[in-house]
Please model this.
Amino acid sequence: MSKVYDELLAKHGIVPYPRTQYSMVERVHDIFPEKYFDVVHIQNALDHCAHPMVGILSMLKTLKVQGKLLLFHGTNEAQNENWVEFINGILMSKRGVS
Model:
């Protein structure tokens, strides 16, 4: 998604700080220094990583003292959204292409 965000920001002339970057959640602490952020947010993504707890620890390393880690994840999100399968890299739902 970082590439999509970069393109959208560039289209509107917005240069975010820090710059949007791709990273596996388990390696976020390799990109950003320790105690860098006041808030770190992740939504419906931990289930896509190989080691969710390693990812959480990596994000915690980048938080300032008293910083907040916001985890938002739905229960059975794919089921709730009627996702059924990936076909040729495209997520399909009962409503069609998602």
In short: Residues 25-97 form one domain.
